[in-house]
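Troubleshooting entry. Yesterday's outputs looked truncated, so today I'm pasting the complete records for two proteins to confirm everything comes through intact. If either block looks cut off, that's the bug. Protein one:
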Amino acid sequence: MRGAITWIFLVGIVGLPYWIVLIPLHDLLLGDELRRQLAHSPALWLTFGSLAAGHFWKGVPLGL
C-alpha cells in the first residue's frame, strides 16, 4: 500500500507539473529538425552514449 501511495505522489506531485511545462515544447522536441540534428551529429551521440554508460557503470555495483 505504501508503494502505491508513493507512486501516486511521485506521478501526481512531481511528474505532472513537469509534463505540463513540456506541452508547449512538443513541436520542438518531436520535430523533424531535431531528428535530423540527432541523426547527423556524432557529438550528440557521444554525449548520450557517455551518459548512458555512466549510469550503467554506477548502477552495476548497486545491483541495477
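Protein two, checking that the full record survives here as well:
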Amino acid sequence: MLSKICTRCGKRIPLNSVCKCSIGKRGKHTQHHRYNEDIKKFYSTSEWKKARERCIAECFGIDIYSFFVLKKIEYGEIVHHIIPIVNDYSERLKAENLIYLTETNHKLIHSLYENSYDETVKLLKTLLKMAKTITAPRG
C-alpha cells in the first residue's frame, strides 16, 4: 500500500487519507475562512490596503517577532491581526492590532494561539509597543 508522511506529526499514513492529528484542525481552519463572505471582501478594500501599508511602514518592513524575540532581522510578508477578525471585527483596522510577520512566524503565532491565546496576544501587543518606540534611521 502506498503511504505518505504527515507534515504535522511525521507519522506514516495511507496515501489518500488525512492524519488523525489534522482532522479537527483542518475542518476548523477551512470553516474559519468560509464562514463569512464579509471577511473575504474586507481584504480587498482600500481601507485594508491603507491600514496594511501603514503597518508595514510602522514596522519598517521587518518582522517584529523575529527582531525582538529571535534577535534577527527578517523582512515581513504578512500583516497579522493580533486579535483575529473572527474574534472582534471592530479591531480589523486599528494600528495597535496589526503586526508585520514572516510567513513562518505567522504560522508559529497561530500555533501559539492554540496553546495560550491570552499570553500570545499580550506578547504581540508588547512587541508592537516596543517597535513603536524605535525611530527610523536617518540617512
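Both blocks look complete. Sanity check on protein two: The beta strands are 3-5, 12-14, 78-81, 98-101.
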